[in-house]
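Researcher: Can you fold this with 3-phosphoglyceric acid in place?
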Amino acid sequence: MTIHDILKLGPVMPVIVIDSADKAELLADALLAGGIRTAEITLRTPAAIKAIEKMARNCPDITVGAGTVRTARDAQIAADAGSRFVVSPGTTSSILEGCQSAGLPLLPGAASVSEMMALAEQGYSVQKFFPANAAGGISFIKSLSSPLPDLTFCPTGGITEITAPDWLALPNIVCVGGSWIAPQALIESGDFAKITNRARVAAHL
Ligand code: 3PG
């Protein structure tokens, strides 16, 4: 699958910060029950890689990727754990090379027009716009559709259930990402019914 195919699996990609890998399968089940078929597990906790491994091995219906990938080494570790894709908050040549050599589709982060153009030159026409609200919000992305009509974005950073529809209404948005569907505290407390409810709303945005 290309990164575009993966992002098209739903309007919202949950951005996950997970503290206990033993909750990975329950989390995947909760997301799937609500109709969400992708998960970006961020490499921000010691449990993240184990959680990716468990989801990739035991939950074939969810397409799991690694987020907050910052180095080529991160990309290789994510690939070895079974990640199907990689998301980076910004982009360095080491990340591009790391994902290419690991054979993983990359959603590369960009926050400025120059960064977006540099990525487009290298063939990355689908990009993560991060941090979406802080870096210019909806009006920034709207302004890109005329000069950069061939680029599409997955914005993340500060997007909520309330604001997601405004982003999704733009022609150059492929999907949005956010942590509101499965926040760290709900995963930790085991409130999977609430996560399913949030997933169900998000899947229909
Ligand atoms: C990300 O990594 O994409 C963001 O941290 C998610 O941002 P949010 O917590 O504001 O949804």
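Model: Folded with 3-phosphoglyceric acid in place. The mean pLDDT is 97.
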